[in-house]
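Ticket #4471: structure output looks truncated?

Reporter: J.K.
Steps to reproduce: submitted the chain below (139 residues) through the standard prediction queue, then opened the result file.
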Amino acid sequence: MLTSPEAAPPLALHHPHLPLYALLSIGACFAVGVAAYVEVVSPGVWSRSSHEPGPRVRTTYENMHELADLAFPAWRVAHPHQACPASLDEVAAYTSTPTTSPYSQLPYGFRCAGHGIWVIDPGDDGVPFTADDLTSDRP
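Returned output as attached by the reporter:
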């Protein structure tokens, strides 16, 4: 039993990993400080997606969704015995949305799927059904 403060064991400051722990603590404090500074200078920067679509992609998706989600249901009501339109122009008659990409001027493609359609922008390569396409089945 310890009876006086002099009898307490000395604090071991010679731990082999102490410099590493100190550096990690300093680094963590620095990272938190930088994150706080960035949030003050540019509020909301951490919540914004680095893959947020630009205006070109947003406009294309809006056009394709209007054709697939608004115009096609109207076409279906007018053509109850047809499952799929012969062309996207038939669907476009029920909206003012163009059937061509506003940027590449290439026509949108489409596929009938179940009780709806997918509208497809052929992307930068101009070839439908490739990896760079934008489709109305994606948000």
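Triage note (M.O.): checked the attachment and the full token line is present. The two ends are 70 Å apart (CA to CA).
Status: closed, working as intended.
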